[in-house]
TrEMBL record:
This protein's name: Soluble quino protein glucose dehydrogenase
Source species of the chain: Pluteus cervinus
Length: 470
């Protein structure tokens, strides 16, 4: 179902704007089908997106997706005569949006490399108010470039007397940025900013935000737990050496870090001077979880300095090097009679992390979604920080040799009200869902070989006329 298409030219037809488009259940297949864990199923709900990154459900169960180069699109589950599947609608056209997305009531927050913008959002009409958005934070882009995504998390107000905040992660300016050791540089940090009604005209400058953590190279994924702790997954450096030895294939580890928002210190998590070992066994280096330095202009920086928790906050858990974690979400469990869809109750309170995958490691690593068993009472991972087995894959590309070009590349994660886990894959332009293997939708995970319904519909329209306007 297409609610508006503009087709021009008698010989070479061009689709200029697609406002609404349906893809039927069972018509959409994985570009590169992953392996799925026991008791689970996975299938694509929508494909053909340009570059889907951050995702967020609104109050009416529409899945909002930052589609890079487009803006924000909404995916809505339909069960009607004109669409029995998932329908896509463009909510916001802004080609500068690149990753971050959050909702606070009717306020939709999105990010560019330099700014965080606020739009007034209507979930019923899947639209934003006309006029320019409000700038909430500005001044985050550096001339040199570097990491350009800005991840957003709303810290809600526990009561009417406390102002809610927006938390923003800003990555480093390049692979190794020596200047980031000084918090005054403003990069490789997480900051937070008070929201309504105190946002100044024109927005906050980045340095006006409260510093939550420094020395975090690129914390693309962030989420809050029930105890007001902020958990983030960090992408560590490439091409690292230790004592003059090239250890980069298996080091440093990617990190799971935590900031206690009940006791904010703005402490350093090590970057750019200190890193975490994943596997340095062949170099007689630190064991997994141990801290080391890759060298510094500061002579006082040593492995011993990095291992001192007064100087560096160590990670709560580590991941294999170069898997590129990009999001983290906690599973709230299944409620009522929703057991036929959601993943197992046994995983309630566990954390899930998307691994985008290495871009140049040999052999490749990542390309999947993992579960971290969680200790609900203590609000920490069950595994210790020196463990290599603190997580397990629930979905992963089956052949690492085909990656990155022939594999899923997970980015955003979001659970719906049925306990299903939705995942965006930017390189393949897909959004897929992970759910119980016996759910009513599980049959759609089977490859049917049928063509994409929206593609067939476009072709049929093109054959009928070169000027149709629907």
């Amino acid at each position: 179902m297409l609610s508006k298409i503009v087709l021009v030219g008698a010989l070479a037809l061009q689709v200029q704007t697609v406002y609404s488009q349906c893809q039927a259940k069972g018509s959409v297949l994985f570009a590169h089908k992953p392996t799925v864990g026991k008791g689970l199923s996975a299938h694509v709900v929508y494909n053909g997106l340009k570059k889907p990154r951050g995702i967020k459900f609104d109050d009416l169960s529409n899945l909002l997706v930052v589609d890079v180069g487009v803006g924000v699109v909404a995916l809505t589950s339909k069960n009607s005569t004109d669409c029995m599947g998932w329908e896509r609608k463009v909510v916001l056209e802004n080609g500068d949006l690149n990753h971050g997305i959050e909702l606070d009531g009717t306020s939709l927050f999105v990010s560019t490399e330099s700014e965080v913008l606020e739009y007034q959002y209507n979930a019923s009409s899947l639209s934003v108010s006309s006029g320019n958005p409000r700038t909430v934070v500005k001044g985050m882009k550096k001339p040199e470039g570097g990491h350009y995504t800005r991840t957003l998390v709303i810290q809600p107000s526990p009561n009417s007397t406390i102002i809610p905040h927006i938390i923003i992660s800003r990555g480093s300016d390049g692979n190794v940025e020596p200047a980031a050791a000084d918090p005054a540089t403003g990069t490789a940090q997480i900051r937070r900013f008070a929201l309504h009604p105190s946002v100044p005209d024109g927005g906050y400058d980045w340095f006006q935000g409260q510093l939550l953590a420094s020395g975090i190279r690129n914390a693309v994924g962030m989420t809050l737990d029930k105890k007001n702790k902020l958990w983030s997954v960090e992408n560590s450096v490439d091409e690292v050496t230790w004592n003059g030895k090239d250890v980069h294939t298996d080091n440093p580890a990617e990190e799971l870090n935590v900031v206690d928002l009940n006791n904010i210190s703005g402490a350093s998590y090590g970057y750019p001077n200190c890193y975490t070992a994943w596997d340095m066994s062949s170099f007689s280096g630190p064991s997994t979880g141990g801290q080391f330095t890759a060298g510094s202009d500061n002579a006082s920086i040593s492995d011993a300095f990095c291992s001192n928790t007064t100087n560096v906050v160590p990670p709560a858990l580590n991941f294999e090097a170069h898997v590129a974690p990009l999001d983290i979400k906690f599973y709230g469990g299944i409620k009522g009679n929703e057991t036929e869809f959601g993943i197992t109750r046994d995983w309630t309170n566990d954390a899930f992390v998307s691994f985008h995958g290495s871009w140049n490691r040999e052999p490749p690593a990542g390309y999947g979604v993992v579960r971290i068993p969680w200790s609900g009472d203590d609000s920490v991972p069950q595994a210790k920080s020196d463990s290599k087995t603190g997580y397990e894959y629930v979905v992963q590309a089956p052949d690492m040799n085909a990656c990155p070009s022939g594999c899923i590349r997970p980015v955003g994660l979001e659970f719906d009200q049925l306990g299903r886990l939705f995942v965006s894959s930017d390189a393949t332009g897909e959004v897929f869902v992970i759910e119980d293997g016996n759910s009513p939708d599980a049959s759609w995970a089977i490859s049917t070989g049928r063509p994409n319904i929206s593609t067939r519909y476009l072709l049929s329209i093109a054959l009928v006329s070169s000027w149709i306007l629907l």
